[in-house]
Give the backbone structure.
Amino acid sequence: MARVQLVRIAHARSGDKGDTANVGLSALKPELYPILAQQVTAERVQKHFSGICFGKVERFELPNLGALNFLLHESLDGGGTLSLKADAQGKTYSAALLRMEIEVPDGLLLKDPVSS
Amino acid sequence: MVRIANGQGFWGDSLEAPLEQIRRGPIDYLTLDYLAEVTMSILQKQRSRDPKSGYARDFVDMVARGGADILERDIKIVANAGGVNPNACRTAVSKALGRSGVKIAVVAGDDISDRLDELLESGVELKSMDTGEPLSTVRDRVQSANVYFGAAPIAEALGMGAQFVITGRCTDTGLVLGPMIHEFGWSLNDWDKLAAGTIAGHTVECGAQCTGGNCQVNWDTIPDFADIGYPIVEATPDGNFAITKHQGTGGRVTVASVKEQLLYEMGDPHEYITPDCVADFTTIHLEQDGPDRVRFSGIKGRPATNMYKVSISYSAGFKAIGMLAYSWPDAYRKAQAADRILRKRLDNLGLKFEAVRAEFVGVNACHGPLAGEPPPDIAEVALRFGVRSNDRAAVERFTKEIAPLALNGPPVVTGLGSGRPKVEEIVAYWPALIPKSCVTPQISVEES
């Protein structure tokens, strides 16, 4: 087993709805999805985003797409035009989630990280 | 097969994208989204100053530039550019086309701002979908109220022979689904097909965000961003479709690029609720079908609800943001010191704010506590300092406290050329639900 940052095995996209940010997490290859589903739990994501997300975290599964969707409630300082945040729409939260580390069996690791 | 292109993902998107979609290859429909959440309030203000305005002028400019090609190629245009004055938009488009006999439809009836009190009295509470509070808490500050219509009125307008369909507020997905319903004669109860069209609409509604824009996978090998192709739906009557872009344009359409957009602004994927149907994103099957083409199949949907969503905007105070950049050496420590000094000065002035926020650009403005400590020799750090208050005078006074720090605070600082911050009126968004029985779309077709 190895500790690996999600950025090596997944990609993500984040958006907003009011004061809630959504972060969709997608496995870079289908065979990586089960480990994401097993380890990237709502509780772990909540812990990862402490200091950013002040409400609950919900998780939804899209096994057809090898993806998970997380809703981070109360994470945008009110959201929209109310927010004083530089990233009022949580557009960089996708990458923030990819900083998280999980345990991956050695055989599943990709050789190269996503970026060049 | 019908080709439905998207040329505008939001108000403020590329001015060239619609024209490129028209000119770089064959399309049957061009769909355009000009309304962000609080755009209606801005357009209301415009209309109160000038009764002939209140619509997205960029759309008329586009028609002026691309009209000849649109007509020659017989492309149908579906846009929510009407804003709060779709009839005036039609008049302007008619003039911009410079040709008579073109059928232009307006879908109106979405504006319920005149009916709010009547609705509240009849028991329609218009509670916030975010907080559950009744609209009465902000009633005297409401600036606009518009119902999100879906695909059905657009399909009906196309059925009346319209080549241009101009709507007020409607869902982005409806702009794409409407043409499909019209072309393929889909029943408004065929939930699986309506869900497919809805998902096609969601995929293309943000323009290039599915064709390689904002895509994390091998972003630096995506060809020719400067000429990125906006997306095209290749739709067929059975509800299956493909997403692609014009040959020879930049960008990259892959399962990865499309998946990222599918996850964007997503709540519960089992129930993506629109006026037309409830789409189930967990039924989508994706397959790469050669370069820059992804096929969608297997999509299932469920019946629509009996409610429309309403977008209401209301005044919610004022805010202002100032920025100051500190350079090496000790850039972060100096920016942090400036933050403390500024807070103390505002305190000394007796100014009270509902919210005060300092972020350090180059360190943690994006990722907050996840960013960790910056390297001590970081080249530059910008302090981004914002305040929010119902008291405009307090926010105004704050704006005058940024510039002095260039001379009377920590050293080696620049204002980044931005001058004194501006006080912004906050127009906030109040999403609510209304029974469909309360509102009826009004469709009219006129010839230019």
About this structure: The mean pLDDT of chain B is 97. Residues 108 and 178 of chain B are 15 Å apart (CA to CA). Chain B touches chain A through 54 residues (CB under 8 Å).
